[in-house]
UniProtKB/TrEMBL annotation:
<dbReference type="InterPro" id="IPR030916">
    <property type="entry name" value="ELWxxDGT_rpt"/>
</dbReference>
<keyword id="KW-0732">Signal</keyword>
<dbReference type="InterPro" id="IPR026444">
    <property type="entry name" value="Secre_tail"/>
</dbReference>
<feature type="signal peptide">
    <location>
        <begin position="1"/>
        <end position="18"/>
    </location>
</feature>
<dbReference type="Pfam" id="PF18962">
    <property type="entry name" value="Por_Secre_tail"/>
</dbReference>
<feature type="domain" description="Secretion system C-terminal sorting">
    <location>
        <begin position="462"/>
        <end position="528"/>
    </location>
</feature>
<protein>
    <submittedName>
        <fullName>ELWxxDGT repeat protein</fullName>
    </submittedName>
</protein>
<dbReference type="InterPro" id="IPR015943">
    <property type="entry name" value="WD40/YVTN_repeat-like_dom_sf"/>
</dbReference>
Length: 530
């Protein structure tokens, strides 16, 4: 029975491995390290370093990758950031080597300088893009004495202008960030020197200079640093430091009087440092620290009270919940009970229903699940085992259905470490390292979605099978490579191109798997060696 179960798992695993493929070895001499994966107009845009042009903007249309070389100086790179879709264009911050880091845009086929905000070679470095009332709001450094302040754009050069000089004292910046829309207005964090040293406080704008003002000076002695904004129960919640209670949870109805501390959850100046805010089942869940409960899972209910969802690591020890994600009617997250390490947990909203979904890395070591992303009705994530390291995993919400999708980097020790999981073109895109290509862009297709894969699997035939010495492949597609694995998943033979026959006479008798890469996709086949 154990052998049959192992065989089933291997068959599933190799089928899944067959669905993971390298999109393009963008940097053939090292790591391309793609960043900012952004879906726009049926293509995926990202930044990457090909080892020749520096970090530039790239496009993947589902078939081919295309470089947009904004800074044409060899090796310089334009270092794009932002990547914000607005009114049929993709906006970004980039440096062409002449104008500094400025506001660029493109329709997906070409990109050009939209506006040199900080004229000359100085950097405007636009960031914190958000759409508000049909316009684009962002923060950029403008020529002194204005400095770094909020801007607003209707998508035209003439309609792109200073929204408000929040910190109007000469040569001082508000560094506005964390824009969040609530109740028809846009709330943000910013610094000002008006009326004394206000520091970074809680602000609001209605899209006009006159309608931009401080909501409340939360910390009268310094910076409040409000952040982590989220709208829940017709109020805006965030974290801030009032100079007395440390970083705690705050709430506002948009008025000065209605902006207040929810609760000093960790009494005294230490602060509970709430984070990972997620709305589930009409509650606002988050992690926070408590003097007697440790760092655990809490929620705010509709009455505005903070409740401990469960003391997962009993007593004052901490479960350290993180990466909260709603999936299939439950809330999933990473946590430790103090015995099993950091593993995959779930809750339906009660202490009794807060349980470990699966101990992925048995024992006291952690699998540390993260990067939770829903794709085709399943939850994919990055998790680690002692043997494989951090690889791509999936769960359907059950322990039995929580399995490794693929050992992307099959070498012992190194790991694939998939990150930036992004759904695009009915596939799961991510950045990983397969051990040979460096850190590049990969894609995974759920076999249930891949009709092409099913057709390829049906049309491709290995014969004879069982095999004594040589086998042939009946297939109309062009074969690019074949990798033979043994039943333990170890690579034992590689064929780099289409041959008339494939020899495996040197292999021992037993069961093997052939991963066959063609111009139509990847398929796995079982081989029995006499």
């Amino acid at each position: 029975m154990r052998i049959r179960l192992l065989l089933c798992c291997l068959l599933f695993g190799f089928s899944a491995i067959g669905q993971v493929s390298l999109v393009d070895d963008i940097n053939p001499t090292g790591d391309a390290s793609p960043l900012k994966l952004t879906v726009f107009k049926k293509s995926l845009y990202f930044t990457a370093n090909d080892g020749t042009n520096g970090r530039e903007l790239w496009q993947y249309n589902g078939t081919n990758t295309t470089l947009f070389d904004i800074n044409t100086t060899a090796g310089a790179g334009s270092s794009p950031t932002g990547l914000f879709p607005f009114q049929g264009n993709l906006y970004l911050s980039a440096d062409d080597g002449n104008n500094g880091k400025e506001l660029w845009r493109g329709d997906g086929t070409s990109f050009s300088l939209f506006l040199d905000i900080n004229s000359g070679s100085g950097d405007a470095t636009p960031n914190a893009f958000v759409e508000y009332n049909g316009q684009m709001v962002f923060t950029a450094f403008q020529p002194l004495p204005v400095a770094r302040e909020p801007m607003i754009s209707d998508g035209t050069v003439f309609g792109t202008q200073l929204l408000a000089d929040v910190s109007p004292v000469t040569n001082t910046s508000s560094n506005a960030e964390f824009y969040t829309e609530y109740n028809g207005n846009l709330y943000f964090s910013g610094a000002s020197t008006v009326g004394g040293a206000n520091g970074v406080q809680f602000y609001v704008t209605d899209g006009t200079g006159a309608g931009t003002q401080m909501v409340k000076r939360i910390n009268s002695s310094g910076d409040a640093f409000p952040r982590d904004y989220i709208v829940y129960n017709n109020l805006i919640y965030f974290t801030a430091e009032d100079g007395v209670n440390g970083r705690e949870l705050w709430v506002s109805d948009g008025t000065n009087a209605g902006t207040q501390l929810v609760q000093d959850l960790y009494s005294g100046p230490i602060g509970s440092s709430p984070g990972f805010f997620t709305i589930y089942n009409n509650r606002l869940y988050f992690k926070a620290s408590h003097a007697t409960l440790g760092t655990e899972l809490f929620y705010v209910n509709t009455s505005g009270s903070i409740v401990n969802a469960a003391n997962i690591n009993p007593g004052s020890a901490s479960s350290l919940p993180s990466c909260l994600k709603v999936f299939n009617g439950k809330l999933y997250f990473s946590a430790t009970d103090g015995t099993s390490g950091t593993e995959l947990w779930e809750t339906s909203g009660t202490a009794v229903s807060t349980v470990m979904t699966k101990n992925i890395n048995p024992g006291s070591n952690s699998s540390s699940p993260k990067e939770f992303t829903e794709y085709n009705g399943k939850l994919y994530f990055n998790a680690s085992e002692d043997f494989t390291g951090a690889e791509l995993w999936v769960t359907n919400g059950t322990s039995a259905g929580t399995i490794m999708v693929a050992d992307i980097n099959p070498s012992f020790g190194p790991q694939g470490d998939p990150e930036q999981l992004t759904v695009f073109n009915n596939k799961l895109l991510f950045v990983a390292n397969n051990g040979t290509s460096g850190r590049e862009l990969f894609e995974y297709t759920d076999p249930t979605l891949s009709v092409q894969h099913q057709e390829l699997n049906k049309d491709l035939t290995i014969y004879p099978n069982p095999v004594s010495e040589n086998f042939k492949i009946d297939n109309e597609s062009q074969i690019k490579s074949i990798v033979i694995y043994n039943i333990q998943g170890k690579e034992v033979k590689v064929f780099g191109y289409k041959q008339s026959v494939y020899g495996i006479a040197n292999l021992k008798s037993g069961l093997y798997f052939a991963e066959i890469v063609t111009d139509r996709g990847v398929v796995s086949k079982k081989i029995i060696k006499h």
